[in-house]
Amino acid sequence: MHWEALIVIGGFALILGAVLLVPGLWWARRKARSNPVVGSIKVTRAGYIGFAVFVAVLLAGFSAEHWAQGSKLGLLIGLPGAKLVFLLLATGAGWLIERSLAAKGIRFTAVVPRNDV
Predict the structure, then answer these.
(1) How is residue 12 annotated by DSSP?
(2) Which residue has the higher pLDDT, 36 or 85?
(3) Which of 16, 28, 57, 104: CA 20 to 30 A from 22?
(4) What is 14-83 written as a DSSP string?
């Protein structure tokens, strides 16, 4: 296994997450000011587990061409545009899994009512 590749890809993923956090927080605060909610949104334990699994799947998939060079997945992910397709498929699968778990009562987020209202 190429640890250098794993460290570089993981580092870029963390940097990209930090870069996307700033506009995401700006957008969320703007939406919250324009549409106040009687409560706040809290990430549940299932949400933390779900998000961690999603990030792990993305990290494993994007680095598959380095840690599984001879496998079909490693060769496939190395093709041009394959990482974008993998990202779209993983996002779609994650959304479907989250929706199916929500239908069974397992929520990734929950609304917590405010005490000052």
Answers:
(1) H
(2) 85
(3) 57
(4) HHHHHHHHHHHHHHHHHHHHHS--SSEEEE-HHHHHHHHHHHHHHHHHHTHHHHSTTSHHHHHHTSTTHH
User: What residues contact residue 17 under an 8 Å CB cut-off, 6+ apart?
Assistant: none
Report the length, in residues, of the chain: 117
* Cα angle: 25, vertex 28, 33; to 5 degrees: 125
This prediction's pTM: 0.62
Distance (Å, whole) CA 64 – CA 75: 8
Question: Which one, of 54, 43, 59, lies nearest residue 112 by Cα?
Answer: 43
CA distance 69 to 19: 30
